[in-house]
Amino acid sequence: MSNEKNNNYSKENEQSGKKNDGFIKGVSKEANDFVHNTVDTSGKIIKSITGEGGLIGKTIDSSGNIVKKASEKGSGAIDKTVDTSSKAFKAIKNKAFNKKDK
User: Fold this and answer.
1) Per-residue model confidence as pLDDT tens digits over 7-43
2) Helix (H) or strand (E) run with residue 47 in it
3) Burial label, 20 (beta-carbon count in 10 A; 0-12, 13-18, 19+)
4) Which of 69, 72, 82, 101 is deepest in the core (most CB within 10 A)?
């Protein structure tokens, strides 16, 4: 199997295994993935120029990890906010529209 076909196959499997998280959670996850990929790519470029094991390479790794963790925390906060507001909306909707007449 060619590399391109293999990549498409893994993306299809990944997407079919995901549950539908909704628009906001989906965008948050995509933004988090974008940050991670950008940090990794820029780190590789800088290390290829300056060298792997030096002080600059280690500094790039550390700062990249900080940026990634901050992105993960932001994405997690968005997920929790969406979950909480969704539960609150459902509770309010159920109380307002599902009243039973006695």
Assistant:
1) 444 444 455 445 567 899 999 999 999 999 999 999 9
2) helix 23-50
3) exposed
4) 82
| Contact criterion met (CB below 8 Å) for 39 and 68 | yes
Structural element, H or E, at residue 9: helix 3-17
pTM, two decimals, is 0.65
- CA–CA gap between residue 50 and residue 85 (Å, rounded): 47
Provide the 3-class DSSP secondary structure of residue 98.
coil
- 31 and 18 Cβ atoms separated by less than 8 Å: no
Residue 76 CA: distances (Å) to CA of 21, 71, 100: 13, 9, 38
Using the Cα atoms of residue 60, residue 66, residue 71 and residue 76 in order, give the sign of their dihedral: positive
Run of H or E residues at 89: helix 55-97
**C-alpha 8: how far from chain center:** 20
Q: How far apart are CA 56 and CA 78, in angstroms?
A: 33
